[in-house]
């Protein structure tokens, strides 16, 4: 099967400098919701138009791109992708601004089309208020779609309406595309006119009309996000995940979470994130594109493009940046930031620390206030800390530098040279005590004030 996504529209009502289809629902652009759905069913093509170069950046490399310029209706969009149509394949038509269609619904539509040998199969639904929708008229095995503005009073009473989602026989499309006319008020070519040309058609009624809601403005975008969020959270809860407060929790469509994990309020989890079993996430936590093992605890923290192994604790107020890897039993505490760093088993950095471009061994203690000075103004440099090392509080490790296994750095040291295994490195000025100096200074200042 071929799946063609129509995504060339301007989206004026979004009042945005960006194309409508790249606006996000739960952190994922609408066009990617539709592309991911399409990939379940076959080879995917997308028709772009308005600011196509922006949309292209979101389209995977295995999706064919066609350009519609100017935009002259849905029929014209398909004409612009004529080279994508194969007479031996059926063609499923989807839309870049209709992101909530389910695999199950499209599967029913495709199955009906194949089993019936139709030229066209239309996804329809029953609308409480059908105003504005094309009505479905049947006559034997033929279907006609009458647009609301062209309908008589009698036809307007029909409440089964067109969703705009179709499966066409590829051979039928090739034979009939050129028969479309644009003799209408808009001067555009419409796919609905093709349905009336088919000799054998049928419909599949949609159970949940919210699946085919489109986005025209930001209010509708927010409404669709609320629907998507409720469905995702419900499915997670039914699968064994505890969502303490669904009204304050946002979880994206590609997130996977294991059983008995608890998600606390005011938590956002986005992207291709996987979370294991028996974890505790949040409150006030933001996670993007992370792989998280079992029995992990992340409190009031941020993590992006990081790998967190089993039995790790993070936070509060920690920030794991891209490239962070935390191995088993690591502890990352309050106000600790990591970037492109690998932290070995049982190691800990509990307070006020920055670890950038660092490789930290197992059983390492990183004292409070420690930083890796990884940037010299031109290039980034690595820091290596061996197994069992103890980094004293408030140390600055000036990269590139290696701290050996079992080594100790004295608190407040600025380490600029490698430290051998099992050594003590102290790099600070010797303490000098001048007894009575503070008292004499205060008296001196008091006398000076009196003279003034």
Automatic annotation (TrEMBL):
Query: Which organism encodes this protein?
Result: Fervidobacterium thailandense
Protein name (Swiss-Prot/TrEMBL): Bifunctional protein GlmU
Per UniProt, what is the name of the gene that codes for the protein in this document?
Answer: glmU
Q: What does this protein do?
A: Catalyzes the last two sequential reactions in the de novo biosynthetic pathway for UDP-N-acetylglucosamine (UDP-GlcNAc). The C-terminal domain catalyzes the transfer of acetyl group from acetyl coenzyme A to glucosamine-1-phosphate (GlcN-1-P) to produce N-acetylglucosamine-1-phosphate (GlcNAc-1-P), which is converted into UDP-GlcNAc by the transfer of uridine 5-monophosphate (from uridine 5-triphosphate), a reaction catalyzed by the N-terminal domain.
What Pfam families does the entry give?
GMPPB_C, Hexapep, NTP_transf_3
Q: Which UniProt keywords apply?
A: Acyltransferase, Cell shape, Cell wall biogenesis/degradation, Cytoplasm, Magnesium, Metal-binding, Multifunctional enzyme, Nucleotidyltransferase, Peptidoglycan synthesis, Repeat, Transferase
- The residues listed in the UniProt record as binding acetyl-CoA, with positions renumbered to this chain, are 368, 374-375, 393, 411, 428
Q: Which residues does the record give as UDP-N-acetyl-alpha-D-glucosamine binding sites?
A: 6-9, 20, 68, 73-74, 95-97, 134, 147, 162, 216, 321, 339, 354, 365
Catalyses: N-acetyl-alpha-D-glucosamine 1-phosphate + UTP + H(+) = UDP-N-acetyl-alpha-D-glucosamine + diphosphate; alpha-D-glucosamine 1-phosphate + acetyl-CoA = N-acetyl-alpha-D-glucosamine 1-phosphate + CoA + H(+)
